[in-house]
Amino acid sequence: MLVDASVKRARLLRESAGLSCEVGQRSSDVFGKVDAVINALPNYLHASATLEALDAGLHVLCEKPLALTASDARACCEAAEVKGLVLVVGMNRRFDDSQAILRMMLEDGTLGPLVDYDWEYGSPWEWETVSGFYLSRVQAGGGVLMDFGVHLLDSLLDWFGPVTDQSCQHDDWGSGIEANAALQLSHSGPFGPVMGRVKLSRTYSLKNRLRVRGVLACAELPVADRSVVIVHGTLARQAVSMTVRLADAGGHDSFSRQIDDFVESIRHRRQPKVDGRHAARVIELVERCYAHAGRLPEPWTEWQTVLPEAGV
User: Fold this and answer.
1) Which of 56, 89, 122 marks a domain boundary?
2) Cα–Cα distance, 312 to 305 (Å, whole number)
3) 268 vs 255, 263, 297, CA distance in Å?
4) Has residue 258 been placed in a domain?
5) In this structure, what CATH number is given to the domain that contains residue 23?
6) Dihedral of the CA atoms 169, 172, 173, 175 (nearest 10)?
7) 12 and 139 assigned to the same domain
8) How far lies 165's CA from each of 97, 99, 143, 183, 256, in Å?
9) Element (H, E) at 213
10) pLDDT tens digits for 95-105?
11) What does the pLDDT look like over 72-97, one tens digit per residue?
């Protein structure tokens, strides 16, 4: 069943996708008719709609972020746990082959003791939006860090463990939403202390890759191909690079894999790969970053006093 405030829009989606399901205008229209829902509403409605569905006894896959505040995210987790329901958050990047390959390399010690990481992701904004909620601090909860940054932070926490210290700079000028952000993070996890840098942009193209440096080798995850990891190291004292991919990689995309994981978690009553608690920890980190953020240096915006030359 498809539900949208605009029944016309829901019908158009049904037709374009070749579906034969019912359409409705209110979330309550699905209660008693389904076992689970996908919450794809704008950010500021995620928590309330998720809580409503959980209260009705439905399993939920909620689009990221789970909520705009850590307290609301934890409330969703607690509601799911009390009801014994599955709560999954749309961190689909965790289902990329490259993410699984990097974890295997970390656990196998392929890179040696870790040194640091550097993750850059960004390009000029080109996402078409009907409602424009992405541009509202109240409705989106933030800018690039809350929007795409949660994907990166989720993966980093999964690989390297909790963040023990962080610093953040962005360009929201104290009232709007940030288009650019730079983070310095320190982790303490299963692979020892790790420090790293994250850079995000909605205004210009970045390197668009994650690079993890170890004593023995360096691993690179390119955004352009999320099925491979490129390893840079030495062989017979010569610098070499090799591309690693899973031999039995399936053809499904990360979104399909996450939905499959959601369904199987419900059927077999098992822990999903990315549950609400994972998402809540990400929102807690985002909150800390926003609360203590400094202004991203923008020297071109600073007023400069031009002193007259002597004798003029």
Assistant:
1) 89
2) 16
3) 20, 9, 51
4) yes
5) 3.40.50.720
6) -130
7) no
8) 29, 24, 22, 11, 35
9) strand 209-214
10) 999 999 999 99
11) 999 999 999 999 999 999 999 999 99
